[in-house]
Amino acid sequence: MGASKCWCSWDRWRLVLSNRKILLFLHGIGGGDKEGHWKLVLNEALTRLEYSDLNQVEVISPQYAHALKGWDEKEVLPDLTVKQPIRDVAKQNRRDFEHRMGAVEFRLGRHNRGTGWVGGDAVVHGAVLGGAAGIGPIAQAHNYLNDPQVRAQVLNRTLATLPESGDLVIVGYSLGSVIAADLLRRLPIDLKVDGMVTIGSPLANGSFNVDKLRDTLNEPPTNLAWWVNFWNAGDPIAAHRGVSSVFPWIVDFRIDTKKVLLDAHAAEEYLADESVASAIGFALFGSKSKELAGTDMGFDVPMNATEFIALLALRYASLIKMRLESDLQDRYAGAIRRVQAAVVDDLSRQNETDRRTLPSSVARLAFDLSNPHATVPEPLPSPHIAKDEAVALLITLASVNVIRPFEIEVSKDNLRDAMKDLTAEMGLGSKYGADVFAAIKLAHETLSSGGPVNWFRWGAMGVGAAAIVLATGGMALAAAPGLVGAAVITSALASFGPGGMIGGLLTAGALVTAGGGGIAFGLASPGTTAETLEVVVERRLAAAILRQSQQLEPDHLIWRFLVETEIQVRREYERLDEFSDESATTLKELRRKIDAIERALKYLRANGLEPQVPHFADE
């Protein structure tokens, strides 16, 4: 059939076009008798979701039930026509596939692989062994898995129903999901798979690793746009898990139709589910998402603090991306795409809850993530803010991973230069951006015994500190002026959670400015590591150093924060020291905390940042 083609570019996948011509439905054991019924069920679900019906596409449902019972003449197993790429081409293919999978997951929900049932594999394996004795319909599955002639007969009959080229959507049910996976790399090279949906699949069971299928599909085939699998909670064939445990590049979704045993395994149960129908409808007819381009028209509502911080972080991420090259830039751009879509979606949902109009500056960043051709709008340059108000904000940006949850290590020079670009367009001057990183470096050197700043680690260390905010129920933010007020932060964290980019920004910002007994008590707790305390103190000290370098009025709250934290840490040390071993890990951690605080206080004292007694008394 000729040499294999590698379709690695986005031009290969036109996921939003409505020209979906072929639906290939591969049934399970004994299937084919209820074609009209499954089509009726799926049509009803598509109609509920406002998709076109199946009359708009060509439906192919090969009848191979007889072929699964045995063979009359020997047939040759069809060749693998879709060759796997190697080296850089393979890497690009995997990245493009994961990009498309990310868009589908964003559209359908969250991946859920499941944990499996204890003994579930044994039950399915036992059923297949029973099929070896010709017991019931399972014999058909056993024949496909163990008789190469039966397998060749089924695959050849299926291929004979397909054209040599075109757009194909595959739905594989039960044994049909095994046949679908086996078929993928044997399709005509000009027949591309716009999407594959498997339901009730036993592929995670070792008995269904036909002809080392897992090795054949160790990477996504180059002719496949995406593959999602659905498993029903009560389905004994799926055994309470998906198939990503054996094909880690696909995404699993759990549904629960409230049925059990074979009723839960029925094809109609799956096809009636809106999540399953949505995946099939999307593959057949493309995105039905409402156009977002018009949402930035209308009233120009001013941004609130959360929106301003989130957009500034997106702008910083965009400037970082511009500093990168080649593969690193491509991966960073892909991460920004996902993060920006999630941020705009989160902010939109929150505004809907609050019955508040979405500001135009946020609305203009919306795009359809499920459409890989959609242009991602670049965040606009940030408006000017005063130098003293920018201190905590910019230290925060430098201290978080602005593409969270993705992790891509970027050099200090690129981060610093992007920060200089950001502060320049904010009207603060590029030197301000350079001073941000200089302050961080000096704060790190003050608290550590030496060694350069690990910028990737510094930007990723907010997770432990976030626990302090949550554990104190907002008490840690009681004295958090400047960046965002305590009430705003606690309210926003309740809405967005500490995870994701928005939650990470708010938490990090709070810890740059927070004070009071709540955070001191949290940092002193044995449950808080010394490393977490060092990160918080380091960020606070960096802010104080930046204020001094910019000739701004000092923030004397840092002194109070350090003193109150030191008191709490020493109290905890004295409480535990009385009976604990001197070599106890907890005592070592507390001594390390005391050392970090003492170093910070020593720096402040040596550089004229210790408040005078009258000033301090007024605080």
Rounded average pLDDT: 80
Please give the largest β-sheet.
6 strands, parallel
Q: What are the low-pLDDT stretches, counting only 5+ consecutive residues below 50? A: 1-20, 116-136, 289-299, 458-463, 469-488, 615-619
Choose one word for the global shape: elongated
Question: What class, by secondary structure content?
Answer: alpha/beta
Quaternary state of this entry equals single chain
In percent, how much strand structure appears in the residues? 5-15%
Identify the strand order in the major beta sheet.
Answer: 2-1-3-4-5-6
Number of helices: 25
Strand count: 6
Terminal CA distance: 81 Å
Rounded to an integer in angstroms, the radius of gyration calculated over CA atoms is 29 Å
Helicity range: 40-55%
Structure overview:
- There is one protein chain.
- This protein has 619 residues and is an alpha/beta fold.
- It has 25 helices and 6 strands.
